[in-house]
Amino acid sequence: MHQPNIVILESRRFPDITEQWYNVAVGALTQQGISISRVTVPSSADLPIALSMLLDTAHHSENSTLLAPDGYLVLGLNYKGDMPEQTHHNIWKLVHKLATKAGIPFSSVFEFEKEGTEISNAATRYVSKIQLAVQSVVNLMMLRHQLIHPPFAAAA
To answer: Could you give phi then psi for residue 6, rounded to 5 degrees?
Structure first.
């Protein structure tokens, strides 16, 4: 049986915060025996493009050394001073649509901080959401495995 692998795709607009988020996710995933691949992009606007490229490469590659990941975890933080809230929501919708269409286990912590919010607290404010997102993607991976490999084979 192969070791499950999750790709963590993250926006690095706020690297100090997302680095802490990444560490929380890695800790939770490695405790469950899941390996991690990391892909970073400079801004949240790049997330849909990167996810589309990852999905296309992982699932349609002729390169036999490239293993398709068992799931994706997307991490990103936006701030009203950098981007309108509607743009943030449109990016999330596109990422969600890509993941749903691919039918691959997926979860995300993609947050928007309004102006006046102390952004430095975002590193710790979303720890429980990251833990829930990790558990969600792991549960979806288990469900997918059970659907592909039912516990009992049909009698011949």
So the answer is: -120, 135
Reading the block at residue 51, the tokens are: 């996810």
Please tell me whether residue 37 adopts helix, strand or coil conformation.
Answer: strand
Tokens 């990016």: give the residue.
91
Q: Could you tell me if residue 21 is inside a domain?
A: yes
Segments forming the whole domain that contains residue 37: 5-148
Provide the number of structural domains found in the chain: 1
d(CA 29, CA 121) in angstroms, rounded, equals 23
- Rounded to the nearest 10 degrees, the angle between the axes of helix 15-31 and helix 127-148 is 40
Other beta carbons within 10 angstroms of residue 82's beta carbon come to 14
Tokens of 148: 């592909």
Global pTM value: 0.86
Please name the residue ranges forming H helices in the chain.
15-31, 47-60, 85-102, 122-125, 127-148
**84 CB-side CA count, 13 A:** 3
Residue position matching structure tokens 């993609």? 110
In a domain, 60, yes or no: yes
Distances (CA, A) of 107 to 6, 73, 95, 131, 138: 11, 5, 10, 11, 9
Interval 86-109: pLDDT, tens:
999 999 999 999 999 988 899 999
